[in-house]
From TrEMBL:
Entry keyword annotation includes RNA-binding: no
Database matches in PANTHER family: ALCOHOL DEHYDROGENASE YQHD
Lineage: Bacteria, Bacillati, Bacillota, Bacilli, Candidatus Onthocola
Domain Alcohol dehydrogenase iron-type/glycerol dehydrogenase GldA: 9-177
InterPro entries named in the record: ADH_Fe/GldA, ADH_Fe_C, ADH_Fe_CS, BDH-like
GO molecular function terms noted in the UniProt entry: alcohol dehydrogenase (NADP+) activity; butanol dehydrogenase (NAD+) activity; metal ion binding; methylglyoxal reductase (NADPH) (acetol producing) activity
Gene Ontology CC annotations of this record: cytosol
Protein keywords: Oxidoreductase
Domain Fe-containing alcohol dehydrogenase-like C-terminal: 191-385
Keyword check for Oxidoreductase: yes
Species the sequence originates in: Candidatus Onthocola gallistercoris
Protein name as annotated: Iron-containing alcohol dehydrogenase
């Protein structure tokens, strides 16, 4: 286990009705905020009204940035940053899922930066100051409510790139599982696949971390227990609550402390959704089993064996490859049970752009669990067709 510094300062209000504390928390940071949200669902389900009631009750003014895309775009970030500068915004308040929160994070950073917002994506070292971020979560998936990261798409260059800074970790996040009752079955499945992939990215590391791995395995088992259950019973509070809390702990740094690794499947999927604008979790569900099969070898079989025994409760056997392959099969089958596609063809992707996407993805895989060349990434993409 390597050295690390531990600090996860986000204040969490978790559970039913916690929105009642929003106004008093916002008031600690600002008397004028930028509301950031996507479509109209938060107005239809009453979440928007609950937020506005809190702002009005505590005398907080607001401006709005609506229409944030599922894969948030640089142009939307630029629009939000300009609003902050023009209107004297003091804090940013996203209401939604990971895309909305990611957009809001870079808006908050760009509002305190004089250059182009894309500079902050390409070089997070340029993030020196960020407006306070307070979030209201409506989708369990990305963990953006408690992490330092954001992923933005530059539609002009068709680049989808992640950036991150400790300054972008939300100061306060409100997590009411009831706010996820109306999430569609497809998005619930995609969200579960996304959080499982976050855990995989930390779990499959070349640095030993016994305690971290045991926690990661428990988080994966929780996803497996409650993902399909939430799809079948959308208003099952216990299922929604467990998924929402896992989404935070999958990517708030805790399970990767002391065992860093460069992510592999996420950078590969980012190319798919940059060019084809597919749902991120669906792309991860397609690629993950193929990546697992590709990297399974004599050097990695022990880890996959451990995964099969501890997560999927496959009995210990002398043939480690048999356990590893069964675990990978169970992973693929579970993604299907979540309603996720299993091939790129199902989401409208053909071979035409795979070489371009493989080249761009491979450039971001240095230090990964198993570093992959451009040709190797392309081979995985083609196996996934």
């Amino acid at each position: 286990m390597e050295n690390f510094v531990y600090s996860i300062p986000t204040k969490i209000y978790f559970g039913k009705g916690q929105i009642k504390n929003l106004g008093q928390e916002v008031r600690k940071y600002a008397d004028k905020v930028l509301l950031v949200y996507g479509g109209g669902s938060i107005k239809r389900n009453g979440i928007y009204d609950a937020v506005i009631d809190q702002l009005q009750e505590h005398g907080i003014a607001w401006e709005e940035l609506s229409g944030v895309e599922p894969n948030p775009r640089l142009t939307t970030v630029e629009k939000g940053a300009a609003l902050c500068k023009e209107k004297g915004i003091q804090a940013v308040l996203p209401i939604g899922g990971g895309s909305t929160l990611d957009c809001a994070k870079v808006v908050a950073a760009a509002a305190r930066y004089e250059g182009n917002a894309w500079d902050l994506v390409l070089d997070p070292g340029k993030i020196k100051e960020v407006l306070p971020i307070l979030s209201v979560l409506t989708l369990a998936a990305t963990g953006s409510e408690m992490d330092t990261f954001a992923v933005i798409t530059n539609e002009a260059t068709q680049d989808k790139i992640g950036t991150g800074s400790p300054l972008m970790r939300p100061a306060v996040s409100f997590m009411d599982p009831e706010y996820t009752f109306s999430v569609s079955a497809y998005q619930t499945g995609a969200g579960t696949a996304d959080m499982m992939s976050h855990i995989f990215e930390a779990y499959f590391s070349n640095t030993e971390g016994y305690m971290q791995d045991r926690i990661a395995e428990a988080l994966l088992k929780t996803c497996i227990e409650y993902g399909v259950r939430a799809i079948k019973e959308p208003k099952d509070y216990e299922a929604r609550a467990n998924l929402m809390w896992v989404s935070s702990w999958a990517i708030n740094d805790f399970i990767s402390l002391g065992k860093p690794v460069a992510w592999t499947v996420h950078p590969m999927e980012h190319e798919l959704s940059a060019y084809y604008d597919i749902t991120h979790g669906a792309g991860l569900a397609i690629l993950t089993p193929h990546w697992m099969r590709y990297v399974l070898n004599d050097d990695t079989v022990d880890k996959f064996y451990q995964y099969g025994v501890n997560v999927w409760s496959i009995g210990e056997k002398a043939d480690k490859y048999a356990v590893a392959n069964e675990a990978i099969d169970k992973t693929a089958d579970y993604f299907k049970a979540l309603g996720m596609p299993s091939t790129l063809t199902e989401v409208g992707i053909d071979d035409s752009l795979l070489p371009t996407m493989a080249k761009k993805a491979a450039a971001r895989l240095k230090g990964a669990y198993m570093e992959l060349s451009e040709d190797q990434v392309l081979e995985i993409f083609r196996k996934a067709l």
